[in-house]
TrEMBL record:
The lineage of its organism: Bacteria, Bacillati, Actinomycetota, Actinomycetes, Micromonosporales. Pfam families: BPD_transp_2. GO terms for molecular function: transmembrane transporter activity. Keywords: Cell membrane, Membrane, Transmembrane, Transmembrane helix. The chain crosses the membrane at residues 22-39, 51-70, 76-95, 102-127, 133-151, 171-191, 223-246, 252-270, 277-295, 301-321. This is Sugar ABC transporter permease. One of its GO terms (cellular component) is plasma membrane. Its main location: membrane. It is a multi-pass membrane protein. Signal peptide: none annotated. It is found in: Cell membrane. It comes from the Bacteria. InterPro entries: ABC_transp_permease (IPR001851).
Amino acid sequence: MQSEVVDTSRRHPRRGVSFRDAGPPAALVVIFVLFAVLSPQFRSIDNVQNIMDAAAVLAVVTCGITFVLMMGSIDLSAAGVMGASALTVSLLVANNRTDNDFGLLGIAVAIVLGCAFGCLSGLALVLLKVPSFMATLGVSAVGLGVATLMFAGVQPNVSDPMLKSWAIERFLGFSYLTWIAAACILVGWLVQRYTRLGRYAFAIGGAEEVLLLSGVRVKPYKVAVFALAGAFYGLGGVMVTSQLGAGLVQAGSGYDFSAITAAVVGGTLLTGGRGGILHSAVGVLLVMVLTNGLVQVGVSPYWQGGVEGLIVVAAVAAAVIPQRRRNQVVK
């Protein structure tokens, strides 16, 4: 019986290949062509490279939040986890406040810290029965508190050449951060497609009751998904530190909402069971192209937050209306 559940969850993404799945990529092409016509600067190679580089951190954070959304849960911990990881890595690599110079080990510790925060979110969900959005919001507050304690009123500036090179050095025209993001998308897709964790994340979002009736212990997988998401957030905090050259408590500010926006726009449902890493990657590009294009054609940056909000509402409505018509239920 359990093997049947695995096969079902494995086939589930293929059933979703439809006009709805083609919508986000088609919208990305249309928006890109539209802005390319309106602004010669937008279609320049340099600007395309800038879009990809600017999307790197958001893509990594979105990879993490996508796995949580696939389960039908909400994760609002990204800002706090990224802040704590940013301060951690900035104090463990070569910097102006401490004598530490742990290099890659410092980066690994920051990522593991993010994983630990994610695990805490998952445990609060499955053991204390706290709704995911509240559990993760609380963990975000804890992360910000830890980051503030480490900040201690003095900004740690990073002097580690390796970490700084991530944002400065380029390979084939793109920064190392962009290639790291591409690697994360690949790893995320492989986990989603070929591991039990990825298949069960889909199954939990689509039909958790079926898994439970099949004898699958769902709770450990939920904790593992939140832990994986936390690791992505931790890496995102390290990447922001590379960009800024310093550790800041606000390193992850706004990334939680932007990541949810990108995932939903790409076709990952808030109710779970549909979408995935590649869907969300398209959503990241769509959001970044739209943001960059609005600036290029002279739209005030102050309007961008409102535009993102409207996009989320429209994307969620487009995804939910067909289901609501089918079920004739408003939740």
